[in-house]
Amino acid sequence: MNFRRIALAAALIIALALIGVWLGRMLQPAPHHGGAELHALIHGELDLDPAQEQELTALERQFAARREALEDRLRRSNALLGDAIAAEHEFGPRVSAAVDDTHDAMGDLQKATLEHVFAMRAILRPDQQARFDAVVSKSLAAEPQ
């Protein structure tokens, strides 16, 4: 094969790969974000009193900073996993340790999120808590879209 045919074949393969990635992203369902539904309920439908609004604002500010730190840790863990995969090219000790670290980071983020949900619930009156609980349960039981 001459250089021109190799270059043409490579260009065609790259173009087809890019089209495949684009199609995959278009066909992939959007992620489910139950948290948005929960925050919409709290802010729009629970008729919070001024003291509750103030507490909620403080909780959200605190959680935003904590979530950002935990998401940064998760990104760093994922980067280390990528480095380990590139270095070992198999499920070796470095990859295994990086997977464990990534799972720890994900678990810490999930725990912090649940702590935030329970902190929000704690500022609600019993009638508000019932509606809040229903939305939380529905969100967790929903099929990913």
Describe the structure in your own words.
It is a single chain. The chain has 145 residues and is mostly helical. It folds into 2 domains: 1-30; 32-141, Four Helix Bundle (Hemerythrin (Met), subunit A) (Up-down Bundle). Helices cover 84% and strands 0% of the residues.
Write out key terms for the chains shown.
5 helices, 2 domains, elongated, 145 residues, Four Helix Bundle (Hemerythrin (Met), subunit A), mainly alpha
Estimate the global geometry from the Cα principal axes. Answer: elongated
Radius of gyration, in angstroms, nearest whole number: 23 Å
Number of strands: 0
Sheet with the most strands, sense and barrel status? none
Overall structural class, as computed from helix and strand content, comes to mainly alpha
Mean pLDDT: 82
Strand content: under 5%
Given as residue ranges, the uncertain stretches (5+ residues, pLDDT < 50) are 29-33
| CATH topology call of the largest domain | Four Helix Bundle (Hemerythrin (Met), subunit A)
Q: Helical region count?
A: 5
Number of domains: 2
